[in-house]
Design brief:
- The protein has 174 residues and is an alpha+beta fold.
- The chain has five helices and four strands.
- The chain has helices spanning 3-27, 36-48, 107-123, 146-158, 164-173, and strands at 54-56, 60-66, 74-80, 131-137.
- A hairpin with a 3-residue loop joins strand 1 (54-56) and strand 2.
- It is globular.
- Residues 80, 105, 107, 140-141 line the site of zinc ion (ZN).
Length: 174
């Protein structure tokens, strides 16, 4: 079976779990830079897969999946995690429990999809070359938002000169 077929088969197998994760996130939306419960949920799911996430930009996370020849190339996959200050009028079982806050921009789907992708790629890591960086970004709905902070901290990691602020987030999480 080709790698593509294996990915499709696993996506089908895990669809129910991915939808359940999306509905949990939809029920529990959080505003920009307040994604503490979302961050915890994502971190727990990644740890279940044997992936150790690193906190970044206070309420964000990055995690790594290494395939064969991990140093050959790096591919980043990003999901945003914050919701909007909107009252949800939908009458669905997974309606927002956080009054006045709603996943109206689809970041619940983005986050659940990236978690599903992590589950699939972890299982297939012996079958692709390179490294996958999973980027769970906070505060996409704000400007300036989480992206610029993540980039700034990531560059500091790369230069082995983390700012006190970046280190503080690390300490809070561990
Ligand atoms: Zn959005």
């Amino acid at each position: 079976m080709s790698l593509e077929s294996k990915i499709k088969a696993l996506a089908k197998e895990y669809a129910g779990e991915i939808i359940a994760n999306r509905r949990y996130l939809h029920t529990n939306p959080e505003l920009s830079f307040q994604e503490f419960n979302t961050q915890k949920f994502v971190a727990e799911k990644l740890k279940e897969l044997g992936i150790q996430p690193e906190p970044i930009a206070n309420t964000g996370l990055v995690a790594t999946i290494e395939g064969r020849n991990a140093q050959n190339r790096v591919v980043g996959l990003r999901a945003d995690m914050d919701a909007l200050p909107i009252h949800e009028k939908n009458n669905v079982p997974y309606k927002s429990h956080n009054e006045g806050v709603m996943h109206a921009c689809g970041h619940d789907v983005h986050t659940a999809s990236l978690l599903g992708t992590a589950k699939i790629l972890t299982q297939l890591k012996g079958e692709f070359d390179g490294t996958i960086k999973l980027v769970f970004q906070p505060a996409e709905e704000k400007a300036p938002g989480g992206a610029s902070i993540m980039i700034s901290c990531t560059c500091k990691y790369a230069w082995a000169a983390r700012s006190t602020e970046c280190t503080r987030w690390q300490n809070r999480f561990s």
